[in-house]
Amino acid sequence: MPNRSLEDHLFNRALNPLPWITRLQIMLGAAQGLAYLHEGLEVQVPPVYFSTLVIYRDFKSSNVLLDEDFKPKLSDFGLAREGPKGDRTHVSTAVVGTYGYAAPEYVETGHLSIHSDLRSFGVVLY
Question: Which ranges of the sequence are coiled-coil (predicted)?
């Protein structure tokens, strides 16, 4: 991506700091990307069509890539998983991802929900 990753702009002292309005726009765009995953993707595999929510599982600044206009694009979906179905609140899974960004309840129990992504988002905001 032309403007590298959000991590590069936050921690690489060789790059000029981003203006606060640009940072805000990046985080709003990243939040919209997570919301898109959490609200349910329309999957079309003819003759079957269904909607499923996706838990990203690895939201961190290095996975937020920036295009030429500093619009964020989520990258690295290797750890993403399909979310819970029906009345289930979570998915049980082996704990993977970057521990500094992972939700404590996910690390402790392996229970994964969209709230796990929201906690990771909060870590990046902090």
Answer: none
Task: Characterize 56-71 residue by residue with b for buried, 16 or more Cβ atoms within 10 angstroms of its Cβ, and e for exposed.
Answer: bbbbbbbbbbbeeebe
Token duo for residue 72: 């964020």
pTM of the model: 0.87
- 97 φ, ψ (degrees, to nearest 5): 110, -170
Catalytic residue positions? 58
Q: pLDDT tens digits, residue range 45-58? A: 888 887 888 999 99
The dihedral formed by the CA atoms of 62, 72, 106 and 104, expressed in degrees to the nearest 10: 70
Domain limits of the chain?
A: 6-125
As a whole number, the mean pLDDT across the chain is 91
